Each structure stands twice: as structure tokens, then as C-alpha cells.
Amino acid sequence: MTPTWTDQAPIYQQLADRLAVQLLDGSPPEGEALPSVRQLASQYVINPLTVTRALQALSDHGLIEPRRGLGMF
């Protein structure tokens, strides 16, 4: 299923919102790694740079923690 995007907000913001809802619902559980940028880009059928920008927005808001060389937790 290809997700639908609206024109109401940038795609990276829509993705960040979707991922934030998933995180707050406990998926993945706290302390576990998020899927990689490539996996998320493939899953949502978007550019990896858009995924990176969404993850950066989540990191800026303190919802995820980047760990150098390991990914996002």
C-alpha cells in the first residue's frame, strides 16, 4: 500500500508526524532502533533525503536519539 500525501504540509513533516504517532504508540519499543533511512524510503516510496529530514525533525523535538554509526533510537 502506497501512502498518500497531501498538499497541506511538506512530505517530510507528514512523515515525521506519522513516525511520531508510531513512536508514541510504542512501535518500535523504547530503546530499539528505528528502521534505516533506506528501509523507510522504500516503505513510504519517497526519497531518502526526505526521510533524513523527517528523522532530523523528530530528533530536534527529542523523540528519537541519533547514535553515530548505529542509527536512530
Describe this structure in words.
With 73 residues, the protein is mostly helical. The chain is built from three helices and two strands. It has helices at residues 11-24, 37-44, 48-60; strands spanning 66-67, 71-72. Strand 1 (66-67) and strand 2 form a beta hairpin. Helix 1 crosses helix 3 and helix 2 (37-44) packs across helix 3 (48-60). The longest helix is centred in the first third of the chain and has 14 residues, at 11-24.
Q: What labels describe this entry?
A:
3 helices; 73 residues; 48% helix; mainly alpha; two-stranded antiparallel sheet
Strand fraction? 5-15%
How many DSSP E strands? 2
Structural class: mainly alpha
Global shape: globular
Quote the distance from N terminus to C terminus. 26 Å
Quick summary of this structure?
The protein is mainly α and 73 residues long. It has three helices and two strands; from the N terminus they run αααββ.
Helix-strand blueprint:
Elements: H1 11-24, H2 37-44, H3 48-60, E1 66-67, E2 71-72
Antiparallel strand pairs: 1-2
Helix pairs in contact: 1-3, 2-3
